[in-house]
Inverse folding.
């Protein structure tokens, strides 16, 4: 039993397990190997930076989930998972980064011990943490048939519980504080690495009024300036902010691994007509998208509304405009199920959460003004309250 | 051509490519698909937090490396890679997290265009960023035979160049600053999230005397206390540090993605006999290991010397005691080639760098006192200069 306070009630974990088993049944799966750290945490409470070695959670036909990982990390599993110690399996250290044996060989033997090695076994084929070699080893060692179950658990996470929404609202308080800090302190000549130090500070510190401090984000802060902002995923360097340039800040507040991402863009100087126009298009497009972001509509409705407005302004955005959010581990705070883009006809349900990622990355500039939202029957809840506009510091 | 200043000379990139091609030839490979972000950066200069979508660098039989990734990230590749824009391939956004098509389908078509789709094609089977689904898609679409080339490029990175050692020494200056900050500020009652904010601050800020600021580490700071320190990879929470407890700090300074990891442990109060004894064993074991850490000896020599001393103190450490370090991206700052453990007979060469990871994670306590070292013909260079002992603040 866990030494650290569980973040959710036993009932909530039981409901998650039951939902997963129903999805397994619908897919005709006898067992499921879950390698995605977010899925592992959602099913068991496991929390640790150990995903750089092979590990997983096994959902068998009956009983509690079983945690499987490196021996030294089993100590962390015992402390954070809700299951009994008998459901924590550590493998010996000579399986780590060995060219002779693979942790999946050990896993296969453990599956056999439990009689879970036959039938149809789901695996997360397109997950970072389930490599081609892991699949080959498991396939070689198991009697069962391995079936692709990528995102099966991710889909169960789509509608957030009351407790989860509570953590996401806490994360929103953190991201508000982060953007306030940026706006307070960013100025011409300030070095980016120093600004990132401030962003981390605002993202982490305990606030007695809030009653909590922050956790690490699944992506580091992204803050490209000027022409570099045409690239969405450059990280920082130690050069100073310049006059006449816009810098976008793609950041998230995080509490207990639950994320509230939010981007704003800061122009140092008088915004150029390009930015004035792009801000107008983005804000009008966001209004149009948010208007349709309600239960019963579809993912693509939000995207089509947003892209429709952009088109009227002559702006072409060639990438999706949002994704679901919730509990996440690196490298991504998206849930990798739905996308806000044409063709995604998933019906929106109350309690689904999205980062409405309306960023524009053009040939020689970039602009990000985004919202994280909770779907409801009426207008969506915007999790964070940060002025929705191009931020400007001029003179 | 890159808009951002390249970190290495054209000659150095050419030498890396030539070394990789020699290794490919030795393995009979006609082409190589490199998915590891550290390998991608080492070969091309590419730097960005985009590894959460499928991407790779292709080394064909001739010519420069080819960068392949999401369309929107091609902007980042153009800005950071040394190759001409014609060697940057972006795939359309509807390949991202689609259930109908896989980015590897698009890659296969591009390989065919270049005539690189036949023969033996190396892939990094056991890399995080090469999923089972990526392998299946590529295998389906390519005429060639896919051959496991996990760590082929990682091995080429083992001996550091003068320029690389320069960045690692800079990273050492950063980690020294981080540990000094911890020792200055950590005290009973200080909340861990606040201490982490200080650690990031010390890890990032520009220092005019040094002439540089810091980059993000491939792992977040790890700082487990008391009995939680039995688990090496728990991350922080917002609870206060307690009297009578030890906390280990596993952190790294980072400059241009080059890491200098270094761990120390801080005891708040009077250290218990367990810690006094463990410190003594660790320091003596480190001396024994460092004594053998020189060119011509083997990886296991260091480990056997260290474990030998521990055994005399009755301490059993069941995991490896170090790994190579250099340029790294999340989730790991190790290079995943050699291990300092019995059975690893790799010969040490001048310029190899290791984190001598002598951490102890026992049933209800943990201690980490480590060094990052450069192998030479004589005694190794300890990169950072931080007092090698159990840090104590008592009263």
């Amino acid at each position: 039993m866990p030494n650290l306070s569980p973040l959710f009630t036993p009932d909530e974990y039981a409901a998650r397990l039951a939902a997963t088993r129903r999805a397994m049944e619908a897919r005709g799966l006898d067992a499921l190997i879950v390698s995605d750290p977010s899925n592992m945490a959602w099913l068991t409470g496991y929390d640790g930076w150990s995903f750089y070695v092979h590990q997983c959670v096994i959902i068998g036909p009956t009983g509690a989930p079983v945690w499987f990982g490196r021996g030294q990390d089993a100590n962390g599993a015992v402390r954070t998972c809700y299951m009994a110690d008998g459901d924590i399996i550590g493998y010996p250290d000579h399986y780590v980064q060995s060219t002779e044996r693979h942790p999946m060989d050990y896993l296969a033997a453990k599956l056999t011990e439990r009689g879970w090695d036959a039938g149809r076994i789901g695996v997360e084929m397109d997950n970072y943490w389930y490599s081609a070699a892991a699949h080959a080893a498991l396939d070689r060692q198991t009697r069962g048939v391995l079936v692709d179950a990528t995102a099966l658990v991710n889909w169960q996470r789509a509608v957030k519980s009351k407790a989860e929404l509570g953590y996401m609202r806490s994360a929103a308080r953190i991201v508000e504080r982060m953007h306030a800090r940026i706006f307070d302190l960013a100025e011409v000549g300030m070095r980016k690495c120093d600004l990132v130090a401030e962003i981390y500070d605002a993202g982490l510190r305990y606030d007695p009024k809030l009653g909590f401090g922050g956790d690490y984000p699944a992506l580091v802060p992204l803050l490209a300036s000027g022409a570099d902002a045409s690239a969405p995923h450059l990280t920082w360097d130690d050069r100073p902010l310049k006059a006449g340039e816009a810098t976008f800040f793609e950041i998230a507040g995080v509490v207990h691994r639950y994320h509230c991402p939010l981007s704003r863009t800061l122009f140092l100087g008088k915004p150029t007509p390009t930015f004035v126009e792009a801000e107008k298009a983005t804000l009008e497009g966001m209004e149009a998208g948010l208007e349709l972001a309600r239960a019963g509509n579809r993912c693509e409705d939000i995207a089509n509304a947003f892209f429709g407005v952009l088109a009227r302004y002559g702006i072409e955005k060639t990438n999706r405009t949002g994704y679901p959010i919730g509990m996440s581990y690196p490298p991504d705070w998206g849930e990798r199920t739905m996308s806000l883009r044409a063709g995604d006809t998933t019906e929106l349900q109350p309690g689904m959460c999205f980062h409405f990622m309306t960023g524009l990355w053009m040939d020689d500039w970039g602009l990000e003004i985004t919202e994280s939202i909770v779907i409801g029957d009426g207008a969506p809840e915007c999790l964070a309250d940060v002025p929705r506009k191009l931020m400007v510091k001029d003179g």
Remarks:
- The longest strand of chain A covers residues 245-255.
- Chain A has a mean pLDDT of 96.
- Residues 186 and 195 of chain A are 7 Å apart (CA to CA).
- Chain A touches chain B through 81 residues (CB under 8 Å).
